Amino acid sequence: MLTTIVHSPYLHAEESPAWKQIALTDNATLSFDGSLRERYEWSDQRDLAAHGGGRDSTFMQRFLLGSKLDYGRYLSTYVQLGSSIATPRDQGRKPTDDDHAYVGQGYIDLKLPTDAGLGTLRVGRQEIPLGSLHLMGTRDGANVRRSFDAVRASWATPKNRVDAFIGHPVNIKKGSFDDDTDNSQKIWGLYATTPVAPLASSIDLYTFGFESNDSTYTQGSGSERRYTVGSRIFGAAAGFDWDNEAAYQFGEFSPNGASHTIQAWSASAHAGYTASTWIWRPRFGGKIGIASGDKNPHDGELNTFNAMYPKLPYLTENGLVAPANLIDIHPSVTLTPTDTISVDLSWDAMWREQKQDGFYLGPMKPVKNSTQGSRFIGNQYQISTQWTPEKWLQFKFAYAYFDVGHSLEKHANLKDMNFIMTSATLSF
Question: Staple partner for 31: which of 18, 156, 185, 399, CB 3.0–4.6 Å?
Answer without folding.
Answer: 18
